[in-house]
Amino acid sequence: MMFYRMSYVKRAVRTFCWLIFNKIENNSNSDFHRNGESLFIKNLFIYYHRKKRRNITIFDVGANFGEYSDMLIKIAKDFNLDIDLHLFEPQKRCIEVLRSKNYKNINQVGISDEEGEGYIFFDDEGSSFANLFGEGRKFEKIRLMRLDSYIKEKNLDHCDFLKIDVEGNEIKVIKSLGDFLNEDFLDFLQFEYGATYIRSHTTLFDIYRILEEKGFIIFKIMPEGLEMRRYKTYMENFVYQNFVAISPRIYNDILSTYRV
Q1: Fewer CB within 10 Å, N side or C side of the chain?
Q2: How many domains is the chain partitioned into structurally?
Q3: Which residues does 71 contact at the CB level (< 8 Å), separation at least 6?
């Protein structure tokens, strides 16, 4: 017979195994209080505190309503750290909320590898799923900017942490750093991966290749901490998860700082 129908038992086992796999892998967990993101930020600030740093520069690309930046500020206070926080968000509704929170460096732009004008699509205003790839019933005209242009404009000499959550446009944000994508300028880079990469025709391998060519070491965010991850094809599953790229200079310094 040419056609085959898998038995109910096999389908049930397959579904169960898939659920277990995603649980073990910390996939599809967007609660940053439980998925390891807040723990990563805490450990990040502990590191800078031990290095006797008092001021750190952070880019929040895809700031939305500022929940992630709120978390950054809250945790930073526990370590007496001052954050030079730069927020990038193109949606009008989100900008209104961010301004009501009195953030200083709010930039109403979308970050991409080409500058000019574009459109952001969404179903609901302020949606965290807003994207540049035509998925949504509504849209807004927005300005697009490269990060290297912004860095030069602001005359910044270092970025300690870059967080990217832009619904599939992550690779273009990374490319927009240009020559600033190097271990001397950037310490930590967090990026999201998931089903949004399908519509942007991007793969996790694409991200790995760009970052590893620049010497960055890539880790997956887990509830217990950061797990170093070499790229494997099974990881190309388009299920929501978060990764952190660390410059080799900082990685080696962390090892020496925490060595007993």
Answers
A1: C
A2: 1
A3: 32, 37, 38, 41
